[in-house]
Amino acid sequence: MMGRQNSVLWTKDLCIGYPLGKNRSKIIAGPLNVDLCAGQVICLLGPNGCGKSTLIRTIAGLQDPLSGDVALGGDDLKELKPTQIAKKISLVLTDSVRSGNLDVYSLISLGRYPYSGWLGVLSQQDKEAIDYAINMTHISSFINRKVDTLSDGECQKVMLARALAQDTPLIILDEPTAHLDLPSRVQLMRLLNQLSRKTGKTILISTHELDLALQVADQIWLMSNDGHLAAGLPEELVLNGSFQQAFDKDGIEFDISTGTFPLHPLGNKPITVAGSGAVTFWTKKALVRSGFRISADAAVSLTISNENGRNHWTLRRGGKDIVYYSINELLNAIQDMIT
Q1: At what angle do helices 152-165 and 182-199 cross, to 10 degrees?
Q2: Is the distance from CB of 304 to CB of 310 less than 8 angstroms?
Q3: Looking at residue 74, what is its pLDDT?
Q4: pLDDT at residue 339 in the model
Q5: CATH fold label, 1-88+168-256
Q6: Which end of the chain has less neighbouring CB within 10 Å, N or C?
């Protein structure tokens, strides 16, 4: 199968799903025509049950497509042996490996099995690849620890190091932040972005981290429950309504101005807010949460300023100015405006 220029992997009219029996199958999504280009981070997003994990398993060769083609490095995926695929794709699934008898270095060394064979005899090249993966993921301080003593964040870095040691042009991660706290999620997504830039590898991430995906992804694959997949720049998918369509549920709307799904309904008390910077941003969020609606031309206006290093919230209401010195003080004073 001929490859496409600069494509690590591409699909043609790919339909994914499960066989149900003789001449019967359930199509989850398709036909899908997508490209994975070299040196990019691609984030796969979509609601639960739309087929993200099925798509990953299919393009990784773990599951047969119902129809269509997957080309890997210009070769038909169906024609490749598992050892050949293992030299082209590294896969990190949601469940990390936990073994009380396995230390971190040994687990990373397993990434070299396509080259060292099942005997696991490491050559100098293998050892250099392992050391490189350890340095790139910044885990040298605990390579001698047992895997079952690691935190979830540490274990996810180790699994990424194993994938790096495998030295494939494509790394696929299925929900890598699923069990991580917020700082660990941010660190991992930032690390993946940096690795793609430094190594030129293509990284495909299935994730629910919409806010982080919008920051790190060069391309987004956005799957919806109707089997459709929209692929493109994050900014273009935001502006053309694809995010709203993919996550469309009653009462849930995507705000293209903030790149989020607002939790609070539109308030019934308009207020004009003047100011700039972080204080104004967070004041607006507090007002919206409290039932206000930010308006360009309201009878009540708020001006946020800073004098001598102290923030001031000046509220003009009924021709009078009242100054407050904290967001909490401001909100307590204007609760009577909410009906």
Answers
A1: 10
A2: no
A3: 83
A4: 47
A5: Rossmann fold (3.40.50)
A6: C
